[in-house]
Amino acid sequence: MIEYLQQLNYWHWWVFGVAMFILEMLGVGGFLIGIGTAALVLGLLVVIGLVSSWQMQLLTFSTLAVVFTMLYWKYFRSATGTDPASTLNQRGLAYVGRHFTASAPVVGGFARLQFGDTFWEVNCDQDIAEGEQFLVESVEGMTLKIRKES
Predict the structure, then answer these.
(1) Considering the domain boundaries, does residue 128 fall inside one?
(2) β-strand 99-101 against 133-140: which pairing, if any?
(3) pLDDT digits (tens, 9 = 90+) for 34-75
(4) What are the average pLDDT values for consecutive 10-residue runs of the chain, which has 150 residues?
(5) Are 93 and 139 in contact (CB under 8 A)?
(6) Inter-residue contact 124 to 118 (CB < 8 Å)
(7) What CA–CA distance (Å, rounded) separates 128 from 68?
(8) Within a domain: residue 130?
(9) pTM of the predicted protein model
(10) Which distant-in-sequence residues (6+ apart) come within 8 Å of 128 by Cβ?
(11) Which of 129, 80, 51 is nearest to 148 (CA)?
(12) Domain span holding position 55
């Protein structure tokens, strides 16, 4: 095993780095991007001659892998828009903060109003006449909480 480690050179790291990127394409979720980048950068450092012994190569690889993985998770992962509070499959949240015109009167604080192609139960603290403006404040289950515009 030691004999193999003593013969590590740049192309071993480049092949390993490319293999990590190929495995990442199978859907690991970003973890192998840092490892693959570390291997490619280490291969470049070996070519330049900054790292030569196998001990230094493994130490440098370990350090670079941790650094690049942390950088990926901190900067690039947040830029991809994978927000855990996504509104996917929560259609009512798309209406929060928007202004609408009542298509039917809201009497007694409850009504069934049409938003686009969907009818929603609405709840309001005061009556709203047909044609008046209102604001969607929040969503409670399948009911939109609205407020009359002044």
Answers:
(1) yes
(2) antiparallel
(3) 999 999 999 999 999 998 888 999 999 999 999 998 998 888
(4) 78 93 85 92 94 90 93 74 62 88 91 88 92 93 90
(5) yes
(6) no
(7) 56
(8) yes
(9) 0.53
(10) 102, 105, 106, 111, 134, 146, 148
(11) 129
(12) 2-79
